Amino acid sequence: MNELETNEKIGKIESRLLSAYIDRELDEQSRQEVEEILRLDPDALSYVVQAKKLSAMIRMSLDAHLNTTEARTAQKILDDRLKKYREKNITSRARGRNRLLDHPFFAVAASIMLLFIGYLVGSYSLETKLQKQIIALEKEKEISLAAVEGERDRILEYIPSGQTMKWKSDNGLVQAELTPIRTLRMDNEQYCREYREVIMQNEKSESKYGISCRVGKERWRTKLILLNGEFNSM
Questions:
Q1: Distances in Å between the alpha carbon of 160 and those of 38, 176, 183, 194?
Q2: Which of the chain's ends, N or C, has fewer CB atoms near its CB within 10 Å?
Q3: Mean pLDDT along residues 4-12
Q4: Which of 155, 200, 208 is nearest to 180 (CA)?
């Protein structure tokens, strides 16, 4: 980098001096001298005001997320990038008030803001997408379990005792097998059947014994379930 680039000015103040002023790296005397010049230099003053505003916006946006792993990782990348810019002391020629954002300081700050906004939008989009997927999956499971009820009624209605029927839901989320064990005739002439049922979902299986009574054609109501060694009345 040649001397002209290093000593480039924004308004009447060297850019490196303005950067040090914005970063609060000047001693008291130098700071006062810069502030005296800023009072009479609208271009340099405008640059400082815009730079401080953008810095404040970035800090406010980041503060709420600094405790997350993702934010700390992103912040380290940005810190390294800023350090590299400072070490090289890259500056570009100021092109008046309307071209302040062309300065490397604003380019880096804008990169930080865009990266952070992208992180937020991406996190929100991912979270929303996952929530929708979870809701859809739970809905499919409910439909599958409802299908278990319907299939159980048909098996109890038509399949002889001792015969095992295996089946799975259309979406493949639930597999089941049901074995009618015996048929019971109650005092009120109602038919009931004892059965064993195994339901498999999410790579887990649940086995239970139950007694279900007929209340209509292909309509059975479970009265008693033995699950995990305990009887539960329905």
A1: 96, 17, 9, 12
A2: N
A3: 64
A4: 155
Q: What angle do CA 194, 198, 199 make, to 5 degrees?
A: 130
* Model-wide pTM > 0.85: no
197-218 pLDDT, tens digit each: 898 877 788 888 888 888 888 8
CA distance 167 to 186: 30
Residue 119 tokens, joined: 């992180």
Give the SS3 label for residue 94.
Answer: coil
Distance, in Å, from the CA atom of 19 to the CA atom of 47, rounded to the nearest integer, reads 10
At which residue do the structure tokens 């499919």 appear?
140
- Return d(Cα 31, Cα 223) in angstroms, integer: 85
Extract the tokens encoding 177: 């097998």
Q: Which two tokens stand for residue 205?
A: 């299986």
CB neighbours of 17 closer than 8 A, spacing ≥ 6? 26, 30, 34
Please, what is the end-to-end C-alpha distance for the chain in angstroms? 84
| DSSP string of 160-217, one letter each residue | PTT--EEEE-TTSS-EEEEEEEEEEE-TTS-EEEEEEEEEEETTEEEEEEEEEEEEET
Helix, strand or coil, per DSSP, at residue 219: strand
Instruction: Report the candidate in 85, 92, 83 with the shortest Cα–Cα distance to residue 15.
Output: 92
Helix (H, G, I), strand (E, B) or coil at 224: strand
